[in-house]
Each structure stands twice: as structure tokens, then as C-alpha cells.
Amino acid sequence: MDASTPDSPLAPTSLAALLAGTEVVVGDAERQLSGVLKLLRRLRRASQEGDLAGLASRMTEAADAARAAAEPLRAAADAFAYDTAAAFADGSYLSELATAARQAELTLVQRDGRITAYPVILRLDARAQAVRIGKKLERRIRPAFLAAELKKLQSRPSRFNAGGFLDRMLKPYALLARAETPGWRPDRPGPGPVVSLSDLYDVLTLAPVAAADYPVEEFVCDLLRLDRVPEARAARGHRFEFAGSTGKKGAKRLTLFDEQGEQHDYFAIRFVLDS
Are residues 247 and 180 both part of a single domain? Predict the structure, then answer.
């Protein structure tokens, strides 16, 4: 089989088609080599026992069979041509991934230069020939496989601790709130000042390693998770209220698309201690 001809399963039409063709070639070789292994086992036994009848011809038969299995693999390797960098750059890979995502009933959102498959942001890494899923570098990028993995990730039960997240935010919130309203104290009943969530994230991740370990996209995912638990309380009894752009002038918008593709915008927050 000439793997470079248009009728070959390795004709480079798309990554999915190319890999499907590779599966066919490798599967055929695997079956042929299984027969070669059986021949080799019989040859080894004949050598151990001294069964000389036809030993040389059987060795030749095994060598010919191994060569016949190897030739399509070699041709396939020579014909395997997929320019990952070009496919990432021209959008053809994303088009394939979007099709696979629809087939897997996974919502994939491409907006403002970002690719979101809640709860993760995807980044195409041409140099590594891989896709970054959040912080993880995933080299297994066949569109159908990747879409299935993302669907499993999306379906995984959340371990989000809303109260713990509020506790984590309360300290940097207090620093920013006192800057806004010097007389405010965390133990004072009533609503605290509205502070920018973007500024809160910056304080939360002041150490460079902290920002690397907790990217802003993950922070916004946590905001959406928190938004879904409106009754959540911090350990000291504080509840939270999100505020829109009018609640905090100049607050930077933090945007996330959920599993249905719905857009969520977050600008600011304040803590409230009920009396």
C-alpha cells in the first residue's frame, strides 16, 4: 500500500482522518506481527529441541513476514505529514476540535482570543505540539479524544469549598476595604466597602509563585462556583455580595463562559457581617 496516494488512509485531509488512517496501518501491522511472533516462538522451540527439518526455510519465512509487516509502517512514517503549528495558526485544528466537542455534547467557547471549556481555559502550544488545559500540558490532541477528556473533566463532581474560598479572600479583602474606608473593620456588623475583584486577585497572589499556581482564569472559575452557593458564609460569619461595574467605578471585568456557553461577568465584591 502506498501511503502517499490520495486513496491511502494516511492522505492528509485532517488530523482526525490522518490518525484514523494511522490506526488502520498500525492495526494491520500488529496483526501481521502477531503471526510473526508465533513463527518465532516455534523456531525458538525447534532450536531448543534440535528439530532441524525445514529450520532454515522457516527462518526465511519469518524474516519475509516481518519485512512485509514493516514496509507499510515505514511508508506510513514517510507519508505522515501534519503541520501542527500551521493547523493551530490557521484555525483548522480548532475547527476539528469544535466539531468533536459538539459530538461529545461539550460546549466549547471561542471568544476574545480565549478557548473555554468550563471549568478550564485551553491554550494551543505549537512548540510542544500540545494543548494546555489549565496548567496541564496535554500531548494527546486527537480532537475526539481531547473532547472526551474535557467532557469527563466537566462532569467530574466539584470539590469546591465555598466557605474556605471566602475565608481565603477575606484577608486581602480587608486590606483593600480599609484602604477604601479607613474606619471599616471586619468585625463591624453591616456591609463592607465594595472592592475590585481584579485588585483582590492581585493581592491574593502577590508572590510570583502564587500567581503561577493560581492563574486568574481559575480564580474566575471559583467566583462562578461561589456565585452558585449564595448562602455561603466565611468562618467568621461573613456573607458575600457581588457588585456590577456601577458598584465599583473602574473595576476591571473578569469574564467566564460556563458549561452551557453562558457569559458571566464579575467586577467587584463586598463582605457583609449580619448583626
Answer: yes
CB 169 within 8 A of CB 235: no
| Dist. CA 216–CA 256, nearest whole Å | 11
Omega before 119 within 30 of 0, i.e. cis: yes
Q: Is residue 7 part of a domain?
A: no
Q: What is the residue range of 55's domain?
A: 15-79
| 112-118 average pLDDT score | 88
- The share of the chain scoring above pLDDT 70, in percent, equals 95
Note the Cα 122 to chain centre separation in Å: 6
Contacts of range 188-192, beta carbons closer than 8 Å, 24 or more positions apart: 188/273, 189/273, 189/274, 189/275, 190/272, 190/273, 190/275, 191/241, 191/270, 191/271, 191/272, 192/270, 192/271, 192/272, 192/273
Instruction: Let me know if residue 112 belongs to a domain.
Output: yes
Work out whether strand 239-243 and strand 254-257 pair parallel, antiparallel, or are unpaired. Answer: unpaired
